[in-house]
Input
Amino acid sequence: MSEGARERAAAARLLRQVVVNRRTTDQVFATREASPLVQEMVLGSLRHHFSLSTAVDGRLRQPLRQKDQDVYCLLIVGAYQLWHMRVPDHAAIFETVGATRVLRKTWAKGLVNAVLRSLAGQAPLEHSEHPPWLEAALAEAYGDAASEVMAADNARAPMCLRLNLLRTGAEDYEARLAEAGLTSRAPNRPVPTGADGRQVVGPGPETRVLQEPVPAGRLPGFAEGLVSVQDAGAQLAAPLLTGPAGTAAGRLLDACAAPGGKLFHALERQPDLTGVALESNPDRLAALEAEAARLGHTRLEPRQADATTLDWWDGTTYDYVLVDAPCSGTGTLRRHPDIKVLREPGDLPALTDLQRRLMANLWRVVEPGGTLLYCTCSILTAENDDVVAHFLAQHPDARVTGVPLTSGRPTRHGWQLLPTDPDTDGFYFARLRKSPSD
Output
């Protein structure tokens, strides 16, 4: 039994965990070590799941039984190899057919062979690779540009780094990357839409994009806390919330903190800030604390707490509040293609309700004259501008203080990054200032 057959069987089993058992790729990869090839086949099969499943379904006389969904997922994996990987057709078919033995489904050898041979040499089906409800929502939000957004969703995400400038200099770390045989560059910085001489926020010297992704452990100085992996778009939260590096002091609250990247970035840019991190999940809080220790952050107080309540609050207000709200994740489809398969339109009402409750509750802890930054990794208006509009209608002491970014586009109340910028995921930011006391 070849290693190639084993890897294809592993990919089919992991894919089944996602599409049948409704588990995320983060969950399935955390419980089972997967080789780079297996990860590529799983993520690619999810990225192109809608066209691949349509093609496979059209070649089956009848749907496979529930207990044989591993075979169905193996067919998807085989189709992905034929249409989107640089694997010779004969090798893809041979190894995928061999995987039926690993799955103990040798009865399916003929079926897998026949389906894959009928797909070999065929052009991939044209498909947006998005579920109909999401395709409609994006068309409503972005009009003619929706097709460009969806095409970007189907690309691979870059690996972006955040240098810890408290522990290393940008030039010094560039040299260490070069010594390790790794090439990086600064992010693309297109002129922002509607810039009119106002302050513009963009990536700082700590932001680098790797030419080729590598495991985080291969990054020079990773164990010593010199560097973190963080999307270039996510790295705009800290300067939006606290301003230019070295200019902010006081107290910062990260209300939905784990895994902590935005909070740690703010503390690395503003040595005079102290931070409080709220996280309701004890495991995620423990991971945040471990990451804080790796990076050397001692000006941080982690608390296990529910940010929709004030049970945790001692009455002391905060100069800066970050609300990185739970959301659909539709801005991160390049990294998490499983979202296209797992997310349902019925999920949105509960998410928007939570987002509204977080905003209303946390506004109470903002110091008069202080700043709240609301952000999501969503590209859906319902989770972004609509949430902020609802908040503004109920809080006359809040005003939007938007700042143009070097990428993306302005919205009614904030700024939207899109995956059409190859260096960023889709993020939404709205910055609100609380009226000073009389």
